[in-house]
């Protein structure tokens, strides 16, 4: 079984085209890694190239939709439909030659995400979801995990940025979780893939402060359609406004909220 609505097809095609550039550029990173200049500017250029391809393809198919994208910001058109784009999520991994990053594209309609795609080009894993039609990994239906005790769970987070104003708070939350789970907390470096992994049942819960909308837009629908919960740290729906996101299977949401109190 697979998802094949018109919008999903547009998103899949745009991602596959952009992924060709990512894969080629990722191959170059190894060479640049050892050069004196390092791959910094090259990575910025890759990010922009990938974004350009995504936008070109999406606009060709849906000329009236608006866009919000990490590098270029907003393009306002018919505001009832909007693409939310993160061309390379996990840029630091990409820059360091670590094969764990993704293209993330969400489609918002009347302020609600209705379609999402997260594509890991290196592992060739395509996560897709559409409102009412389920979540899929490479055309196989995905479900969140069924673990019910936080102690037995594997949880992910992103941690603070070096200049974060919330550093103490974030480290405190990390500390609290680390004494609740037997398996040490994972930090894989791509927020969109963290969410896709919750949807796929690989990870049981993920929490993070201060993410941008493009980091989480596609993940929101993937997790919801896989039967998981997306809330803020208090269990409410204000995760975009509050910039606190908690993503879980359907069993451990309350237990994670207790830890975040
Ligand atoms: P990026 O690679 O597109 O910059 C790393 O923890 C993950 O969080 C990445 O997905 C990174 O996206 C994202 N991220 C974006 N803004 C962040 C922030 N203010 N603090 C922590 N992580 C952030
Ligand atoms: Ca991102």
Would you mind describing this structure in some detail?
By secondary structure, this protein is an alpha+beta fold. The chain has 2 domains: 6-141, Fructose-1,6-Bisphosphatase, Chain A, domain 1; 150-260, D-Maltodextrin-Binding Protein, domain 2 (3-Layer(aba) Sandwich). It contains 8 helices and 12 strands. The mean pLDDT is 95. A hairpin with a 2-residue loop joins β4 and β5 (112-120). It has helices at 6-33, 40-61, 91-95, 167-178, 191-199, 213-225, 239-242, 253-260; strands at 65-69, 73-75, 78-89, 102-109, 112-120, 125-130, 134-137, 140-141, 155-157, 205-209, 229-231, 244-248. Strands 2-1-3-4-5-6-7-8 form an 8-stranded mixed β-sheet, with helices on both faces. A 4-stranded mixed β-sheet has the order 9-10-12-11, with helices on both faces. The longest helix is centred in the N-terminal third of the chain and has 28 residues, at 6-33. It is globular, with a radius of gyration of 18 Å.
- Percent of residues in β-strands: 15-25%
Cα end-to-end separation? 41 Å
Please tell me what the overall shape is.
globular
Total number of strands: 12
Give the key terms:
8 helices; binds calcium ion; D-Maltodextrin-Binding Protein, domain 2; 2 domains; binds adenosine-2'-monophosphate; eight-stranded mixed sheet; alpha+beta; Fructose-1,6-Bisphosphatase, Chain A, domain 1; 261 residues; 12 strands; four-stranded mixed sheet
């Amino acid at each position: 079984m697979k998802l094949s609505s018109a919008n999903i097809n547009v998103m899949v095609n745009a991602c596959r085209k952009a992924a060709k550039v990512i894969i080629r550029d990722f191959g170059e990173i190894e060479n640049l890694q050892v050069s004196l200049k390092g791959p910094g500017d090259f990575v910025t250029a890759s990010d922009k190239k990938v974004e350009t391809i995504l936008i070109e393809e999406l606009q060709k198919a849906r000329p009236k939709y608006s866009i919000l994208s990490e590098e270029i910001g907003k393009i306002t058109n018919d505001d009832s439909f909007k693409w939310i784009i993160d061309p390379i999520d996990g840029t630091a991994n990409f820059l360091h030659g670590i094969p764990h990053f993704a293209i993330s594209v969400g489609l918002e309609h009347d302020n609600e995400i209705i379609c999402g795609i997260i594509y890991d080009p290196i592992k060739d894993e395509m996560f897709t979801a559409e409102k009412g039609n389920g979540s899929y990994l490479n055309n196989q239906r995905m479900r969140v995990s069924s673990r019910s005790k936080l102690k037995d769970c594997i949880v992910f987070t992103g941690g603070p940025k070096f200049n974060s104003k919330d550093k103490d708070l974030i480290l405190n939350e990390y500390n609290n979780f680390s004494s609740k789970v037997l398996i040490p907390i994972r930090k894989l470096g791509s927020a969109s893939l963290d969410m896709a992994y919750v949807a796929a049942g690989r990870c049981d819960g993920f929490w993070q402060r201060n993410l941008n909308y493009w980091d989480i837009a596609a993940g929101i629908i993937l997790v919801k359609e896989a039967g998981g919960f997306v809330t803020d740290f208090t269990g409410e729906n204000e995760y975009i406004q509050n910039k606190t996101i908690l993503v879980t299977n359907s069993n451990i949401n309350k237990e994670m909220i207790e830890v975040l109190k």
